[in-house]
Amino acid sequence: MENCLFCKIASGDIPSSKVYEDENVFAFRDIAPQAPVHILVIPKTHFASAGEVTPENSALVAKCFEAIAKIAVQEKLDTGFRVISNCGPDAGQTVPHIHFHILAGKKLGEKMV
Ligand code: AMP
Ligand code: ZN
Fold this sequence. Notes:
Elements: H1 5-11, E1 18-21, E2 25-29, E3 37-43, H2 58-74, E4 81-84, E5 100-104
The protein binds adenosine monophosphate and zinc ion (ZN).
The site of adenosine monophosphate has 12 residues, from loops.
């Protein structure tokens, strides 16, 4: 999608600190980390958020979670991690291309980030 920051990152038009890539999924380090490990996992195909998951694109969500499991091994997140997806303004979503935050590297709060 034109003018989408994360589409441009997935295509390599905008540089990022890549962590993982396969046919369907791209993952990179968050530019403003909120934990010692903060990785964003996105499908290469654009859709806005968890509120736009359909039978046509839900397999891409599963692909993202397959990638998350691989990244957890690759990054040695042996003691755990948290996955978050913000959807819409009340959740503070700032980039309207669905993404999953992986937060790790410290004891995370028991309720939220
Ligand atoms: P959200 O607020 O859930 O939409 O998450 C968007 C995330 O994208 C934030 O944590 C930002 O720090 C991150 N972000 C924005 N621009 C970039 C970029 N160019 N490279 C890496 N992460 C970014
Ligand atoms: Zn996009």
